[in-house]
Every structure is written in C-alpha cells, then in structure tokens.
Amino acid sequence: MKERIRKIARSELVRNSAKLLSANVIAQAIGLLVYPILTRLYSPEDFGLLNLFLSIGGVLVLLSTAEYQYAIVLPKKDEEARGLVHICGFLLLITTGIVLLSVPFSKPIARLFNTPELANWYWLMPLFVFVMGLWNILNYWYIRRKQFGAISRYQISQSVLSSLTKIAMGCIKNIHCGLIIGSLFGPLLPMVVNLYHATADKLLRHLQPKKNYRTLMSQYKNFPLFSFPRALLNQLGSNMPTLLLTPFFGLTEIGFFSMSITLGFRPINMLCSSIYQVMYQRLAERVINKDSIWKLLAKYIIRTGSISILFFLILFFILPDIVTFLLGEEWLTTSKYIQLMLPWLLMVILVSTTSYITDIFQRQRGYMIFEIIYVLSRLAALIIGIIYDSMYISISLFCIVSSIILLLEFIWFAHIIYTYEESIK
C-alpha cells in the first residue's frame, strides 16, 4: 500500500497537479484574504462597477482569439503549435484595435447599462483585453510544453500585485476606481516577464508562410465554428445577471451578487483550473495514443463529487456567520446568494474539470447546442425575476436552471467517453 502511494505521488499527473494547485491555492488565498480589508475600503457600488467592467471585458477577451488557443495543445509538432500561437496573436491585435476604436463611445455604452460611472474608466478596456487575451495564449503554450512552473509564478505574482494595488488605491479618499486599476495592473507586470521568456523561447519569431496559417485554421476550424460560439454563449450566460440586471436593480445589488460570485467561485477556480490544465494535456496525450481514459476520470469524479457534497452541506448552515464575520454586517445579503448557488457550484466542479472532452474529441458542435439551451434558459429565469421586480427570484431561478443544464452536459460527457472506450476495445 505504501509503495502504491509513493508511486502515485511520483506520477507526472500528481506532481503537475500539485504544482498548479499549490500556486492556485496561494494566489486565490491572497485574493480572498484581502476581501475583509477591501469591503471596508470600498462600497458595494464599487464592487458592482468592477463586476460590470469585468463582465464586459470578459466577453471581449473571449472574442480576441476565437478559441484557437485551446488548439495549441493538440498538434504533434511544435512548429504547428507556434503557428496557432501566431494566429491567436493576429486575432488579438485586431480585437484590441476594434475595442480601442470604441473608447470615444464610452458614454453611450455606459448609458446602455444605466451606469454613468462606467464611462470614466472604459478607456482602460483595450489594455485589459490585450493583457488578458495575451495570457490566454501563453497559458496554453505553457500547458503544451508542461511548463507549469511558469503558470504558477504568473498566478501568484498577479494576485499579489493586484491585491496590493487595490488596497493602496482604496486608502486614498474619493478614489473609486482602485478595484478596476488593481485588476488591470496585477497581471500587467507578470505579463511583461512572460513576454521576455516567450521571446527567448522563439515563440514570437520565425513567422510562417501564409498557406501554413490557412492550413492550420482549416484543420482546427471547429474551434471558431463551434467551440467559440459555445464559449461566447457561456460567457454571456455567466455574466448575464450583471449585464441584464444592473439597469433594473442598480450597482448595490450587483455588488452583493458579484461578491457572492467571487467568494463562491474563487475557491472553485482554485481547484478546477489546475486540475483542468493538467488533465487536458494528459488525456489528450492518451487519446492520441488510443489509450483508455475511463478509469482515470471515474476515480476523479467519484472522489471529488463525494467530498464536495459533504462540504457544501456543512457550508450551507454556517455561511451567514462566515460572511458577516469576514466582510461585515452590511454584506449579509451575499451569504443568501451563495446559499442559492451551492448546487450550481457542485455541478461546476464536475463539469468544468471535464469539459475538455468536447475539444479532445472535436464535439464542439454538440456543446454549442447545449450552450444555446443554457443561455436561453438562464435568460428566461432572469426575465421572470425582472417581471416580478425581485433580484432574489432572478438569482434563485438562475441557479436552478444552471444546475440542471450542467447535469445534462455531464451525462453527455459520460456518453462521449463511453463511445470512445468502445471504439478502442
């Protein structure tokens, strides 16, 4: 038994997962630990404005690469992977330029969300899109090269810089943009360092003939044709409460909800992103070699699901006390929203760490259909809450619908794996 444990501990999957997980734990812990300070420096309205800025920015970042970054992991040859990096870079520059051209229209954009404050800081959006889009590209190059240490260093450094900047700006009176500036400045400096290493790795050199890029774009066309619309729908669906409810319920309620998303999803992302990145590379490699993947995934799902259910049951009863102790009595509404989100969070853990199945098996079209249903169902849930003039009803229905659709997606993933396992027998 001891020898088996040592063998597991020495395995590449465990070592790489541990490396990324430890970095995620540190980075996310830093981000979470500063919130008791930030909630006493900034108002719920400030957090609502940050969430609106990030929601808009998140959609634009997704547009910037058309999902080609996920294909970087898949080619057998590094030369082809570099070509995909270049394609992503070209698309990122075009998107950033378009966003830059939209800056003069910041006031009409702010009026669209009934939030005049947004116009004062929209000029930061092009830089935010460029920095975050560039990291998405480099991140998957690092995954391909198994350079998980570089990913870990970035995660920790950007979290530290972002937290320190937010605190420093919050200590200055009448500065309400500190949260936005911190969210941008945090990843900016680590990105400069990563660009230096990318240059040393010859990643940004040796442009290829145009026909090579056309061939690669055609070979991996399922990513922009199906994966991209699906991801865009997912992004819009995730940010739909902020984008749709802000004009009706104001920045204060959105601030409470955005804090619940932060407290609920930061620990989840801490766990899921590291597992996703390592398992994506590992399972893609196994599928290329026609090896079985069922046992590895089944063990992970059973263990993770059991632990998560027990933890969430306990958490449900102690959430109000935890939230008010950490953030203050003013933020009690946040705990109610998190309680509504727990079933949704459980399904996110299981689905987000296995969603690469659709990319590995080129099943993006089916996933896109799920996302269409997902977005329309969530939209209907929010509209019902708006009709009844209740933020609580909107979020309750939103969480219920999200949980059900993710469960159906998870069942579909299992079917895809079953079909693959049958084909290699």
Textual characterization of the structure:
The chain has 425 residues and is mostly helical. 82% of the residues lie in helices and 0% in strands. The chain is built from 16 helices and no strands. It has helices at 2-10, 12-33, 35-41, 44-63, 78-102, 106-112, 125-144, 148-170, 178-200, 210-219, 222-288, 294-327, 332-352, 357-360, 364-387, 391-423. It is globular.
What tags apply to this protein structure?
mainly alpha, disordered N terminus, 82% helix, 425 residues
Could you provide a short overview of the structure?
The protein is mostly helical. The protein contains 16 helices and no strands.
Outline the secondary-structure elements.
Elements (H helix, E strand, L loop, with lengths): L1 H9 L1 H22 L1 H7 L2 H20 L14 H25 L3 H7 L12 H20 L3 H23 L7 H23 L9 H10 L2 H67 L5 H34 L4 H21 L4 H4 L3 H24 L3 H33 L2
Helix pairs in contact: 2-8, 2-11, 4-7, 4-11, 5-7, 5-10, 7-9, 8-9, 11-13, 11-15, 11-16, 12-13, 13-16, 15-16
